[in-house]
Design brief:
Rossmann fold, alpha/beta, binds 8-iodo-guanine, single chain, globular, five-stranded mixed β-barrel
Amino acid sequence: MTDHVSTIAAGARASEAAAVLAGLSGLPRHDVAVVLGSGWVPAADLLGETTLDIANTDLPHFTPPAVAGHAGRVRSLEADGIRVLVFLGRTHLYEEHGVDAVTHAVRTASAAGCSTVVLTNGCGGLDPTWQPGTPVLIKDHINLTGASPLHGAHFVDLTDLYSARLRAMCQSVEPGLAEGVYAQFRGPMYETPAEIGMVRAMGGTLVGMSTALEAIVCRSLGMEVLGLSLVTNLAAGMSGAPLNHEEVLEAGTSAATRMGSLLAKVIRELR
Ligand code: 8IG
């Protein structure tokens, strides 16, 4: 396939998924999409009134989840009149299904009518004052995956990718929220201490394995993007202890109530 045809094919797959979603939910359109990453899934129940809860694979072209804590479900919620499409879990680049699998959820959200997307993740933090369980607004990213989620000569401006308007809104909902620059690695290994030194020298303050490629596609489709990280661990080499996935899930479970009420408030401001 040529790159141009690849773009059309990704859009057509998303339209198919959006059509099935419309049938199952009875809603021709949704307003806001939320992608819940590691540590955020337990917050899902706090966001609104669930009106549909399906496996992501009930929609065409979704990939079954590979990782514990990545639920692979899709919900339709009602939050004070806002129709919210929630993805519990995501497909990661390290699962090796390719960039189109990574971005299918946000392409589907766009095809379903969402003009705003909230991308959340669990990540490592480079600021020693960010204890595990600290939420951080993403103000910019550095894509260290070596991959692009766009096909062909598709030039997209990423200035203000993480909407200044939505960040200001979050700051009014939760004054003093920290802000950071998110560096996306391919994973699935965590970084070496030397790689964390590289990220610090580049101006990155958060490290993870998601979000940036999805945000790029959202911008290419004209959606407004809000990025929220939950720092679940200090970046490699900073705490003296090794990193492990269970610790990450545990930090999410204990922060769930706070993240849920933050997200619930933020969603109600998105209209
Ligand atoms: I949760 O320290 C979580 N995800 N790359 N590094 C990377 N991804 C992560 C980390 C981390 N913690």
